[in-house]
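USER: My hope is that you can spare some time for a protein that puzzles me. I am handing you a single protein, as its sequence and its fold in token form. Walk me, if you will, through where the backbone shape changes along the chain. The protein I mean follows directly.
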Amino acid sequence: AGGFLQTPSASVLSKFVNSASDDDLSVGDRQALASFLSSSSDAPGTGEIVGILEQMKETMEKDLAEATQQEEAAIEAFDGLTAAKTKEIQALTESIDTKQSQLGEGGEE
């Protein structure tokens, strides 16, 4: 973990920890991560922090999968509605054209 603390990823994680809302990260988790990121790899509790990070990753992956699934369902529903409305517009346009031509023919007789 000592090598990790020197990477840009550690800096990104540190910014996330500092800017995360209480919904994203509990106060205790935020303090534990901040402590980890500001200390050496020999500090006690690093295994716990790694576990927290893994749990956060799993949660975020699950949330992403759910959001992706919901978005795909919404796109499918929108495409279906668009197709139905296009057919409806086409049918109504044909109906209008037919009625206009009938009115036009009726006036000529």
Observations:
- The chain has three helices and no strands.
- The mean pLDDT is 82.
- Residues 68 and 74 are 10 Å apart (CA to CA).
